[in-house]
């Protein structure tokens, strides 16, 4: 039986774990030189001796690819080929354990597997460090990549280079890794590997003869991928004799064993009983267990420089094993590995239970999910309209969607997710405010906290560098779209005769809501998009109020760019007009900046609202209806004399369907 | 069980004589002579129709063959049972509704009336209304109903546009309607009402106003204007859902209503209720009973009633519903003497809520006098005088509260259901406070 031990059985993964096919697993060449044979109980207890793998026999690599280009399928084949898992038809995206990962064809949580592979009479230790498949997680990707010396850049032979291929390539390139281009899906009818070779040569400057053409689905040529890993990726440059220096590149939480940290050893050795220190928190722990991921945890006596595995050391919370942190031996401090950052949320959204009675269930679901995802920030929040809830910070849009989907799928929670906002910044000029905030530059998450212009030197908004890859026929439309989103063009490259790559600097808030949808619809689905963090830029931001008959609706206060105030204000007014039920009085809906009204709609008063026929047989029914309506009315939020159903707020605040 | 021909004849003669007497414009002036609990109106439900109308969700059945004799016996039995149970001594009005009660034989209607007259006092001037559908040859049948004791007709004319009539699933034409109306007026002068619908799918304001004008040339002294209510489960509802018919436009319906009521006012009609208009004092006393929360008995399948079962020693008013399906209802009547399926006691507050909701449908509204009959301690001023929200309605002239009582303005009447959503909670709140006087204020 495939043992779903360890983290796969952690409560957060329970939903996904159940979906794993119960496939038998007989083979794993744990010991060097061991032939493939079924495990016996005795052997399971036997711990492999990892000292037999010096750094020069180790290769650490990742697979990076655009969505659906076959990353997980290739990983499955590599695992099979090296005997890590059994060859069975059921091996589908073995490393993607979450339901949402399988459904959406993306990898959310990085997984790692150690492969043993003999080549030219020598046993190699290959560590496949699977990365999250989206640049929302670019920090995680970069940390995973920093544990590698090379990557397999998988490109679909039919679709060619896509936006994410480009973004991923540059992450690897910047990390100075060896890049092995792999053209996948050559079995497809419309496959054109030669065209893709040319694209790779043009965009990435990699000679076309370096491309390996495979079909991961059929297993065609996958062997040569492993050979290339050994021949073209250098071994890690590390020293076993130096004091321990280990990078935490991922961590998960297990209900019974605490935090399980995935580590890569840059120097030294670690074994059970060692006292280790986190460079970030300076906390000391005793190592309870070390081992390799095969892909499930397989304890070993020790891990040596250049190797990759897991470590359990009594950490209670994933924030104690932050991604990018360095671990060293107690009393042997080392220079921490470069590049550590705390997770920085880029997109914020309110999360509320559909029904307040669901509050506690939702709370516990969010707690459980965040146990494994320290990058989600959680702040309690409450809205007069939507009740008690939270403002959550996410790494990006996909991260937000995935989190929401997991809440719904794994915890059966139904939530209202409000329109996402981005963290703006203000540089304060008022000495009083600086004193109050204890800093000159503040981050504004909630529009209610937006400081007045008179107290501010400048406002800043987050920007991202976006990459669009599209068939050339859509270029004009896409450029117009980008311009409408206040983006500035950085460059434009024809990657072949009929495909173009555009780079734009986008204000983040211009792409958080429906940019991707618009892009997809105006390119008939052919354009792809990806983005990476590009810091902050000065922006003319203003606070916009929404008024109903002259009264401000606090829930709808919005921070917008000056240029967008009219469009955004008009949209909110129109949505309100469409969703506010008629009332006894006319409702004037206004969007205003300061005292200046920039958009206006009206909802006419009821002219007739009375039951036409009310005789003997109608009375009971009518009274019942009236009383139910009167009861419902009591629960409505009132702004002045206007009653606003929760539904209206949901329609106005909710993320509009995208996908 | 069937009453003798002789006795029916005697009552009918008196009733016909009563038609010629002048009528009183009595809405809002409750007759004090007898206790309200010994009087009632009677509703008789005839559950069958020839054809299903596309908009109707009433309790009606398209029969393959009606055993009218059995049904007649059951109606008679149930009338007797409920009259005894209620202890009602005087029946002020009888209304034959349906279904299509004009499909019943005059003999059946006569039998019910005679049973009532035997069990209680049915004054000769009592209003006895029959709902009738227009037909191509109305004459002799309407005369026979008159002979059976009917003295008022309510004609389901609905529209004077043949296309609309077809959409509504009516069996008659506009021509049939006018012919029936003329014949009815000849037979029941001054006591004929017609229904006209408004707010139909695809209906436009101007053509509808022309229909109303045309109707004014032909109609008698009573008119009902009913805005179409799209009811779930009707074929019209389904057609609108499927998009085969456009959804009725509420703004156009409001426009028709406003202009229609203006035209009728100018033609000398009094809008004495949301949908009802009368001139020359031809108000329906039966319907007035509903809006004034008088007692009413309901007999026949699915009929509703509200009364105090005094005959059984009760003191609390009950809302009662008879069994819906005609066959089951008949079985129950034969077994138990009545087919009451559901019986709910009304609390004092619930009754007051009805007094308010029903009373405000009328032009006189809820008078202080009327209110006091139901609640002698807590006045309308006590309940509504201090409320901020009610004050706003008064300030906006949607509602009036003065020495006469509480009533809707012309504009307010059209949005009464919205007003009630403010007034009903206010009544509930005042009632609670009244019940548990605050120790601080000392009441």
UniProtKB/TrEMBL annotation, chain A:
Stretch forming the signal peptide: 1-16
GO BP field: positive regulation of translation; translation
Subcellular locations according to the entry: Mitochondrion inner membrane
Catalytic function, reaction form: GTP + H2O = GDP + phosphate + H(+)
Positions with a binding annotation for GTP: 65-72, 130-134, 184-187
GO MF: GTP binding; GTPase activity; mitochondrial ribosome binding
Keyword Zinc: no
Membrane topology reported for the UniProt record: Peripheral membrane protein
Origin superkingdom: Eukaryota
GO cellular component, one term: mitochondrial matrix
Keyword Transmembrane helix found: no
InterPro entries for the chain: EF-4, EFG_III/V, EFG_V-like, EFTu-like_2, G_TR_CS, LepA_C_sf, LepA_CTD, LepA_IV
Keywords: GTP-binding, Hydrolase, Membrane, Mitochondrion, Mitochondrion inner membrane, Nucleotide-binding, Protein biosynthesis, Signal
Pfam family, one: GTP_EFTU
Residues of the Tr-type G domain: 56-237
NCBIfam families, per database record: lepA (TIGR01393), small_GTP (TIGR00231)
Family named by the database record: Belongs to the TRAFAC class translation factor GTPase superfamily. Classic translation factor GTPase family. LepA subfamily.
Protein name, as recorded: Translation factor Guf1
From TrEMBL, chain B:
Keyword hit for Metal-binding: yes
Originating gene: Rsad1
Protein name from the UniProt record: Radical S-adenosyl methionine domain-containing protein
Subcellular localization, as worded in the UniProt entry: Mitochondrion
Annotated function: May be a heme chaperone, appears to bind heme. Homologous bacterial proteins do not have oxygen-independent coproporphyrinogen-III oxidase activity. Binds 1 [4Fe-4S] cluster. The cluster is coordinated with 3 cysteines and an exchangeable S-adenosyl-L-methionine.
GO cellular component: mitochondrion
Homology family: Belongs to the anaerobic coproporphyrinogen-III oxidase family. HemW subfamily.
Chief place of localization: mitochondrion
Molecular functions (GO terms): 4 iron, 4 sulfur cluster binding; coproporphyrinogen oxidase activity; heme binding; metal ion binding
Cross-referenced SUPFAM superfamilies: Radical SAM enzymes
CDD domains: Radical_SAM
GO annotation, biological process: porphyrin-containing compound biosynthetic process
Domain Radical SAM core: 34-270
């Amino acid at each position: 039986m495939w043992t779903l031990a360890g983290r796969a059985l952690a409560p957060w993964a329970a939903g996904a774990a159940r979906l794993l096919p119960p496939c038998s697993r007989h083979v794993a060449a744990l010991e060097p030189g061991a032939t493939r044979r079924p495990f016996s109980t005795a052997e399971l207890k036997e711990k492999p001796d990892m000292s037999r793998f010096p750094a020069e026999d180790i290769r650490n690599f990742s697979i990076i690819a655009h969505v659906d280009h076959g990353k997980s399928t290739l990983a499955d084949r590599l695992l099979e080929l090296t005997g890590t898992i059994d060859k069975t038809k059921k091996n589908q995206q073995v490393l993607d354990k979450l339901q949402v990962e399988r459904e959406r064809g993306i990898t959310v949580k990085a997984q790692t597997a150690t492969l043993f592979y003999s080549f030219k009479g020598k046993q190699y230790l290959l560590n496949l460090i699977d990365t999250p498949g989206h640049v929302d997680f670019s920090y995680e990707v970069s940390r995973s990549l920093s544990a590698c010396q090379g990557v397999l850049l998988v490109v679909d032979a039919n679709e060619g280079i896509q936006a994410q291929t480009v973004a991923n390539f540059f992450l690897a390139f910047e990390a100075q890794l060896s890049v092995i281009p792999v053209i996948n899906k050559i079995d497809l009818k419309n496959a054109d590997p030669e065209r893709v070779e040319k694209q790779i040569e043009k965009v990435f400057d990699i000679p076309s003869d370096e491309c390996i053409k495979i079909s991961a689905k059929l297993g065609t040529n996958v062997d040569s991928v492993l050979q290339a890993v050994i021949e073209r990726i250098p071994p890690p440059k590390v020293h076993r004799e130096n004091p321990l220096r280990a990078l935490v590149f991922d961590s998960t939480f297990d209900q019974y064993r605490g935090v399980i940290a995935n580590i890569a050893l840059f120097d030294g050795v670690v074994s059970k009983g060692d006292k280790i220190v986190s460079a970030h928190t300076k906390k000391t722990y005793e190592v309870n267990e070390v081992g390799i991921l095969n892909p499930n945890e397989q304890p070993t006596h020790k891990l040596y420089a250049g190797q990759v595995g897991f470590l359990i050391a009594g950490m209670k919370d994933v924030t104690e094993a932050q991604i990018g942190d360095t671990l060293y031996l107690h009393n042997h401090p080392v220079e921490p590995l470069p590049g550590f950052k705390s997770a920085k949320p880029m997109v914020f959204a309110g999360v509320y239970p559909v029904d307040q009675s669901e509050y506690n269930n939702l709370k516990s679901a969010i707690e459980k999910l965040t146990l494994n995802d320290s990058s989600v920030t959680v702040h309690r929040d409450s809205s007069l309209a939507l009740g008690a809830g939270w403002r959550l910070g996410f790494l990006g849009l996909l991260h937000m969607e995935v989190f929401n989907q997991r809440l719904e799928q794994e915890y059966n929670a139904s939530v209202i997710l409000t329109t996402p906002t981005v963290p703006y910044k203000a540089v304060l000029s008022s000495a009083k405010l600086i004193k109050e905030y204890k800093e000159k530059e503040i981050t504004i998450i909630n529009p209610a906290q937006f400081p007045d212009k008179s107290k501010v030197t400048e406002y800043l908004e987050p920007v991202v560098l976006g990459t669009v890859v599209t068939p050339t026929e859509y270029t004009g439309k896409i450029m117009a779209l980008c311009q409408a989103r206040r983006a500035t063009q950085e460059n434009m490259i024809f990657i072949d005769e009929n495909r173009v790559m555009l780079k734009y600097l986008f204000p983040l808030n211009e792409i958080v809501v429906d940019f991707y949808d618009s892009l997809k619809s105006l390119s008939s689905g052919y354009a792809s998009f990806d983005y990476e963090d590009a810091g902050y830029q000065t922006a003319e931001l203003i606070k916009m109020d929404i008024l109903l008959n002259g009264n401000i609706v606090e829930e709808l206060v919005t921070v917008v760019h000056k240029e967008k105030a009219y469009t955004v204000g008009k949209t909110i007014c129109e949505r309100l007009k469409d969703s506010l039920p008629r009332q006894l009085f006319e409702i004037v809906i206004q969007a205003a900046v300061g005292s200046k009204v920039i958009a206006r709609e009206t909802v006419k008063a009821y002219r007739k609202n009375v039951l036409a026929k009310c005789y003997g047989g109608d009375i009971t029914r009518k009274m019942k209806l009236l009383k139910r309506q009167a009861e419902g009315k009591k629960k409505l939020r009132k702004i002045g004399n206007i009653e606003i159903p929760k539904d209206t707020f949901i329609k106005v605040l909710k993320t509009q369907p995208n996908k | 069980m069937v009453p003798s021909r002789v006795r029916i004849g005697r009552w009918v003669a008196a009733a016909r004589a009563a038609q010629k007497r002048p009528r009183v414009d009595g809405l809002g002036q409750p007759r004090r002579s007898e206790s309200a609990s010994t009087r009632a109106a009677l509703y008789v439900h005839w559950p069958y129709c020839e054809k299903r109308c596309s908009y109707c969700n009433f309790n009606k059945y398209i029969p393959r063959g009606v055993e009218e004799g059995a049904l007649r016996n059951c109606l008679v039995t149930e009338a007797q049972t409920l009259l005894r149970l209620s202890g009602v001594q005087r029946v002020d009005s009888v209304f034959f509704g349906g279904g299509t009660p004009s499909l019943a034989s005059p003999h059946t209607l006569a039998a019910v009336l005679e049973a009532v007259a035997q069990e209680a006092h049915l004054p000769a001037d009592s209003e006895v209304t029959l709902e009738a559908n227009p037909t191509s040859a109305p004459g002799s049948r309407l005369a026979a109903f008159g002979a059976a004791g009917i003295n008022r007709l309510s004609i389901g004319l609905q529209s004077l546009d043949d296309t609309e009539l077809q959409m509504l699933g009516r069996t008659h034409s506009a021509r049939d309607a006018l012919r029936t109306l003329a014949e009815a007026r000849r037979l029941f002068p001054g006591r004929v009402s017609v229904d006209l619908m408004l707010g139909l799918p695809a209906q436009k304001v101007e053509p509808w106003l022309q229909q109303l004008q045309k109707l004014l040339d032909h109609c008698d002294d009573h008119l009902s204007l009913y805005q179409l209510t799209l009811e779930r489960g009707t074929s019209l509802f389904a057609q609108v859902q499927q998009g085969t018919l456009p959804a009725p436009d509420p703004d156009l319906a409001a426009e028709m209503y406003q202009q229609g009521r203006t035209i009728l006012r100018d033609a000398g009609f009094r809008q004495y209720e949301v949908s009802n208009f009368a001139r020359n004092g031809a108000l329906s006393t039966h319907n007035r009973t509903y809006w004034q929360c008088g007692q009413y008995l309901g007999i026949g399948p699915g009929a509703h009633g509200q009364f105090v079962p005094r005959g059984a020693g009760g003191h609390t008013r009950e809302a009662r519903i008879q069994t819906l399906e005609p066959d089951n209802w008949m079985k129950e009547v034969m077994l138990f003497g009545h087919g009451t399926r559901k019986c709910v006691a009304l609390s004092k507050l619930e009754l007051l809520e009805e007094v308010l909701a029903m009373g405000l449908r009328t032009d006189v509204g809820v008078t202080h006098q009327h209110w006091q009959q139901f609640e002698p301690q807590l006045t309308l001023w006590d309940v509504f005088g201090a409320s901020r929200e009610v004050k706003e309605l008064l300030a906006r002239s949607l509602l009036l509260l003065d020495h006469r009582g509480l009533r809707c303005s012309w504009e307010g009447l059209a949005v009464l259901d919205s007003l009630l959503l403010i007034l009903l909670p206010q009544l509930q709140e005042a009632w609670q406070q009244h019940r548990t006087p605050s120790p601080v204020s000392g009441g």
